[in-house]
Amino acid sequence: MHAEMSAELWNSAVRVLDINWAGDHMVPSRRLYPHQWSWDAAFIAIGLAYVNPTRAWRDLRSLFEAQWPDGRVPHIVFDPATAEADYFPGPAFWNVPAYGNRAARGSTGIVQPPMHAIAAWEVYRHAAAHGANCAHQARTELQWLYPRLVAQQRYLTTDRDLGRGGLASIVHPWESGLDNSPAWDDSIANVPADLALLSRYRRRDLDVSDAAHRPTDLDYARYVGLVLSYQAGGYADHGLLDRHAFAVECPAFNSILASAELALAQIAGVLGLTAAAGTHRDRAGQITAAITRRLRDSATGMFHALDVKTGKLSAANCASGLLPLMLPDLPAAMVEAIMAQLRSPRFGLPVPSYDRTAADFDTMRYWRGPVWINVNWLVRRGLLVHGFRDEAEDLRTAMIRLVHRNGHFEYFHPTTGEGLGAPAFSWTAALSLDLLADRSVPAYAKAG
């Protein structure tokens, strides 16, 4: 890889992160996403640590200052400096009760994938490599974050185990981070679509983005309706299956959940909590076993979303079904089956968000075909965990070239590489730094 190209990409990524810093948190992009997003903060911290570790820790702290008493970490923490009219759905729509540190900065009532323990461990690893003083400061940050990360995991593995099978359920497509993925098509079809809601609640995303790149009005009406349904029950999870139309076990969400337990085991070790570290490793194994038991289609070798209400697996082959590759205890035969899918015409490198051979593959629309850097970063992590170093390096090179050639966009056309969605997107910039630094081998990876 040319040193000039690497330097150009590094410098452009740093500029994006400088532009998007909002004082005590990072916004994903200035125009389309003017608040703090949950799993974005985790991906951003991983790369931001290379150039400003103080901001990386502050971003994570800022997010967890909005944690609910039940342990959930909201998927958006709102910036009070942004007017309600500038983003929908904003704090007034969510109407989340104000308590604790959330009184000044409102939040949503739903969650996103729990990437944060992974991020905290990666930021710590980076600090520890820079000497004793940096490691000491980072250990202090871990001490603050650790009980809050544990509470987040406890909420997801207990209150959100709606299927009682050992996995967390998402109760809104937004919680997956993969908003309009075909993985939810069958389940979301059972949600009433009241288009009149879009007259009452006007979309703001289409004011600043191309409608061809975004979820449809039909999808959006269902998204709004699901929030209102969850809100009507006070955002409580007890008895939710009886009153809410959407509950799905996502293979990507739960693979991240298990990986977070492994990261917590590492963090607990640093903090001298030996017994807790063992407990985290055991939980990771239990979640991995539940994923293989509940979400795998033996006919395809792929992992699929499970509709908890109907008990049916989605037939869609989505990138989310590749992410159990992150799990070090995944049986070898299942690893090989994922690799066969990854090497097939359905996917390839870099990985699109959906099966390239599907009749409804859409090269432009959000999670229905485009390439996303964060998902490919997670796929690469899985390749490294299982010793597929050549493919991991091919993927790293492909991602770096894609972003260098087209810019730090939210996502990319899966054929031409054209940048789509929001420009100057924070996690694309941050993960570019991590890819350039090439330090992303997990400490708990299998030898290979």
TrEMBL record:
Keywords: Glycosidase, Hydrolase. GO terms for biological process: oligosaccharide metabolic process; protein N-linked glycosylation. It comes from the Bacteria. Residues 33-428 form the Mannosylglycerate hydrolase MGH1-like glycoside hydrolase domain. The keyword Glycoprotein does not apply. Gene3D superfamilies: 1.50.10.10. GO terms for molecular function: Glc3Man9GlcNAc2 oligosaccharide glucosidase activity. The keyword Zinc-finger does not apply. It holds the Pfam family MGH1-like_GH. SUPFAM superfamilies: Six-hairpin glycosidases (SSF48208). Belongs to the glycosyl hydrolase 63 family. This is Mannosylglycerate hydrolase MGH1-like glycoside hydrolase domain-containing protein. It comes from Paractinoplanes ferrugineus.
